[in-house]
Amino acid sequence: MLQTQITQQIPEKFLALLTKSSILSEELAHSLIERSKGDVQIFEKLLLQEGYLTDEQLAQIKAQAFGWHFVDLDSIAVDEEILSLLPGVFLIERKVVPYKLQGKPGIAMLNPGDTKLRRVLQKRIGSETRFSLATASDIASALSRHDEGFAVSAQEYVSSFGAANKANRQDDLSAVHLVSSMLTHAIRRRSSDIHIEPRKEQTFVRERTDGVLKTQLKLPKAMHDLISTRIKVLANLATDEHSKPQDGKMQFETPEGSRVDVRVSVSPTIDGEKIVMRLLAAQNQSLPLEQLGLNGDDMEILRQQMARAWGMILVTGPTGSGKTTSLYAGIRMLHKDDVNIETIEDPVEYDLPGVNQMQVNEKAGVTFATGLRSLVRQDPDIMLVGEIRDQLPGTDAVL
To answer: How many domains does the chain have?
Structure first.
């Protein structure tokens, strides 16, 4: 039996089964534990990346170690009745798939030991539901098949394109409906960005969800200009400008009534204008610190650091990972009548009541560096710097 302090986050019965079944020697297990620093998720990634186990083998070993039921989603049917009871966003966020096996309902998930999630699901679909372990790839594949409705409806608009002649009104309507479908789909999935990228023969539509870009549609290249024009009209951009970058904003409302601010960036490429739409969901603006997904210990550490009278908290991460949402949640927690909060941002994504927010404007000479120096003279108690792009604002922020 492996006994070491570094294995606290990796269950001993899981390790024991790996060594007992000769998948890993104890020496190799120690090496992987040290490389993963005891983090079970990193440990599992190493097992997969270095070929010690396949995705399905790993799931079956975990099921055996913890006494969970394992299910192969490729060989059974998704339960459409239960599926209708659970919002698509919930399925995607929690990575759960309802299924039916021998007439009995079940839920496939990555961690059947998550008692909190199980209670939530039981309230929605009944206490008799069986919870099973499935591979991450099977769950992603099943959710992707469920999500095909977007591709099907989009294909209807594509099929109607050019039915009569290229300049007819039907083509304009196809572009209108297609842009609306793109935005609605991305908002429902809580994606942070939509990329519309022209290539030589097609236009690719990709969404960034949880920091990962994934292709959702491939459209005829002939549709690209109509889509681009539609988005420019919505964002109040020049429709006859194709050689210079443009930036704009718009607001979009989904069929469910959700309103989302959309920041639009248009950039010329050799194959046409690439468009990126950043989705600024209203619910993220008011998200409290407690809902950021931090565990109890990390939340307590963050609260202690934020309560200090001096110091700096640096928030880092890839695009769409929640940096701005985290910063704004912290600012809302710290905002009181007896403190002066100043920010310098590019752009100001959300309006924070009671907070003095400055927008970067390089044409007017307002950069992060000059703006930060100005904020220091505004008698601030708390300052938020939206980005540290280079050495100068970085040095000023630290000093």
So the answer is: 4
